[in-house]
UniProtKB/TrEMBL annotation:
<feature type="signal peptide">
    <location>
        <begin position="1"/>
        <end position="28"/>
    </location>
</feature>
<dbReference type="InterPro" id="IPR042100">
    <property type="entry name" value="Bug_dom1"/>
</dbReference>
<protein>
    <submittedName>
        <fullName>Tripartite-type tricarboxylate transporter, receptor component TctC</fullName>
    </submittedName>
</protein>
<dbReference type="Pfam" id="PF03401">
    <property type="entry name" value="TctC"/>
</dbReference>
<keyword id="KW-0675">Receptor</keyword>
<comment type="similarity">
    <text>Belongs to the UPF0065 (bug) family.</text>
</comment>
<dbReference type="InterPro" id="IPR005064">
    <property type="entry name" value="BUG"/>
</dbReference>
<keyword id="KW-0732">Signal</keyword>
<dbReference type="InterPro" id="IPR006311">
    <property type="entry name" value="TAT_signal"/>
</dbReference>
Length: 332
C-alpha cells in the first residue's frame, strides 16, 4: 500500500482524532456486535462510496454474525450523512463510508460545519483511485506539457468541467492551474456524467475526471487521456503518465479520490480495532481485489494510525489549495 506510510503516521498522529481507550470492555480485543450494523453512505446510490459499502456490508454480516445494512444519506456535499454518524452512539453499530469530500476537502471549503475534524475516528480506507486529465480530440495537445503551453498561449480562453464546485475533480483542476501558472474557465456541472457529455460534445476543452467513471470514454476514443493525478501510473492505463512525471512544476502533485470507514470519535479503540481487522481480511479477498482492478482503483487498507495519518494529510493538503484559491461555500 503506497499511499500510507509509517513516516507520515509519525508526523500526523498528534493531529489525529484520539483513539479512545476502552474501559469496561471485557475480552476487548475480541469485540463482536450484539445488534445489527449500519453503514451510512453520505452520497446517492451507484457511486464508488456506495459500491464500497455494498461490497463491505455482506462481508461484515458474515464475519460478525449480525445483519449489516447500507443506508444512503445524500445531500449537502456529504454533510448530512456525516452528521448522522457523528451524532450516533459510539458503540460500533453505526459506521460512515466517508470520502475525500466531507472528510477532507469540506473542512476548509465550508464556512461552518455541524462537526469538527476530530468528530470522527478513522478506521481504515477501502479504495483510492486517481483522477485522469482528459481533453477533447480537437485540443492540439498530445501531452500534459503541450496542454500547459496551449493554456499559456490562450489564457482564460479554454474551459474545464467538473462534477461541481469543491468536488475532487474541480480542486484537482484548481491545483493544476496553480502549479503550472495557467488560467482556464471552470464550468461546474451537476455530476460527472453531464460534464463528460459536454466534453465529448466539445463544449468544454478538458477536465479532470475520476478514472473509475471516465475510463470507458478513454477506451472508446471519445476523449484523449494525458495524465493521471496519482503519484504513480495506474495499471488500467499503463501508457498514461502520472502528472508529476511530466513537469518539474508538478513534482508534488498527488491526488486520489478515496473512500473509507469512520466511527464516532468516542468509540472505544478495541471496537475500532475489531472492525479494522475485519476490513483487512475483506480487502484481501479475491472478489474485492478484482472489483478494484476493474474500477482502476487500489486498496487503501491501513492500520488505525496509518489511516488517521493519511486522512490528516489530506485535510492539510486541500486546506492549502483552497486557501490559495480563496474558495469558500456555505454548508447546506
Amino acid at each position: 500500500m503506497s499511499m500510507i506510510t509509517r513516516r507520515t503516521a509519525l508526523a500526523s498522529l498528534l493531529a489525529a482524532p484520539a483513539l479512545a481507550p476502552a474501559p469496561a470492555l471485557s475480552q476487548a480485543s475480541d469485540w463482536r456486535p450484539s445488534q445489527p450494523l449500519r453503514i451510512i453512505v453520505p452520497a446517492a446510490p451507484g457511486g464508488t462510496a456506495d459500491i464500497s459499502a455494498r461490497l463491505l456490508a455482506p462481508y461484515l454480516q458474515t464475519h460478525f454474525g449480525q445483519n449489516c445494512v447500507v443506508e444512503n444519506r445524500s445531500g449537502a456535499g456529504g454533510v448530512i450523512g456525516t452528521a448522522e454518524v457523528v451524532r450516533a452512539a459510539p458503540d460500533g453499530l453505526t459506521m460512515l463510508l466517508g470520502n475525500i469530500g466531507p472528510q477532507a476537502i469540506g473542512h476548509s471549503l465550508y464556512r461552518s460545519l455541524p462537526y469538527a475534524r476530530d468528530s470522527l475516528l478513522p478506521v481504515s480506507g477501502t479504495v483510492r483511485g486517481p483522477n485522469v486529465l482528459v481533453v477533447h480530440p480537437s485540443v492540439p495537445a498530445k501531452t500534459l506539457p503541450e496542454l500547459v503551453a496551449h493554456l499559456k498561449a490562450n489564457p482564460g480562453k479554454l474551459s474545464f468541467g467538473s462534477p461541481g464546485v469543491g468536488q475532487s475533480p474541480h480542486l484537482t483542476g484548481v491545483w493544476f492551474n496553480q502549479a503550472t501558472g495557467t488560467e482556464a474557465i471552470h464550468i461546474p456541472f451537476r455530476g460527472a456524467g453531464p460534464a463528460a457529455v459536454e466534453l465529448v460534445a466539445g463544449n468544454i476543452q478538458y477536465m479532470w475526471d475520476n478514472l473509475t467513471s471516465g475510463i470507458q470514454q478513454i477506451r472508446g476514443g471519445r476523449v484523449r487521456a494525458l495524465a493521471v493525478s496519482s503519484a504513480d501510473r495506474n495499471p488500467q492505463l499503463p501508457d498514461v503518465p502520472a502528472a508529476r512525471e511530466t513537469m518539474p512544476e508538478l513534482a508534488g502533485f498527488d491526488v486520489n479520490t478515496w473512500f473509507g470507514i469512520f466511527l464516532p470519535a468516542a468509540t472505544p479503540r478495541p471496537i475500532a480495532e475489531s472492525i479494522n481487522r475485519a476490513m483487512k481480511s475483506w480487502s484481501e479477498t479475491e472478489e474485492v481485489k478484482a472489483r478494484w482492478r476493474e474500477m482502476g482503483g487500489v486498496s487503501l487498507y491501513g492500520s488505525l494510525e496509518d489511516y488517521a495519518a493519511f486522512v490528516n494529510g489530506e485535510v492539510e493538503k486541500w486546506a492549502s489549495v483552497i486557501r490559495k484559491e480563496g474558495l469558500q461555500l456555505d454548508a447546506g
